């Protein structure tokens, strides 16, 4: 998955959700490590994009997992 594909193909609210999730994750990791991991603003734009790409990949995997569970008829 490339950044261009999901950013262009997904609805704007979902793109915004990915970006905000990446920002929140960076902030939470920084807090949990007492600043050993950088805050969002301290990440380079490449690092921010990489984190957003990872989050988008997780969202995509979660969609597939939900689809698989529904197809198997597993109870929720």
Question: How would you describe this protein?
Answer:
There is one protein chain. This protein has 76 residues and is mainly α. The chain contains 3 helices and no strands. The chain has helices at residues 3-9, 12-32, 45-72. Helix 2 packs across helix 3. It is globular.
Outline of the structure:
Helices cover 74% and strands 0% of the residues. The protein contains three helices and no strands.
Distance between the termini: 29 Å
Low-pLDDT runs of 5+ residues are none
Shape verdict: globular
Helix content: over 70%
Average per-residue pLDDT, rounded, comes to: 93
Rg over alpha carbons = 15 Å
Q: Strand share of the residues?
A: under 5%
Query: Number of DSSP strands?
Result: 0
Helix and strand layout, with pairings?
Blueprint: H1 3-9, H2 12-32, H3 45-72
Keywords:
76 residues; mainly alpha
